[in-house]
Design goal:
Structural class: alpha+beta
Order of helices and strands: EEEHEHEHH
Oligomer: single chain
Number of strands: 5
Distance between the termini: 32 Å
Shape: globular
Helix content: 25-40%
Largest sheet: 5 strands, mixed
Length: 99
Amino acid sequence: MVRIRLQRQGRRNAPFYRLNAIDQRTRRDGRVIEALGWFNPLEKDAEKQMSLNGERIQYWLSVGAQPTETVRDMLGRAELLPAKMKEQWEADRKHARDV
């Protein structure tokens, strides 16, 4: 199964993440099927903090790729989740807020 997950780059205390489609059995920094974007948590400007290839992400989700929880949150905020996944994501967020 293909997972959409983050791959850590950068140096110590200065993380930088790439969003990739990877086989779930591959280690975190292993071979990538396709690069789908990047995320820089240290960037102050929200516009420059993340870059996603929405078209390719939609494709991978349509063929059955599963995002990790963190990636699902990122995609939900960027309005890139399909309707069924978005409903589940919103329900999970509501449950987390109520607990």
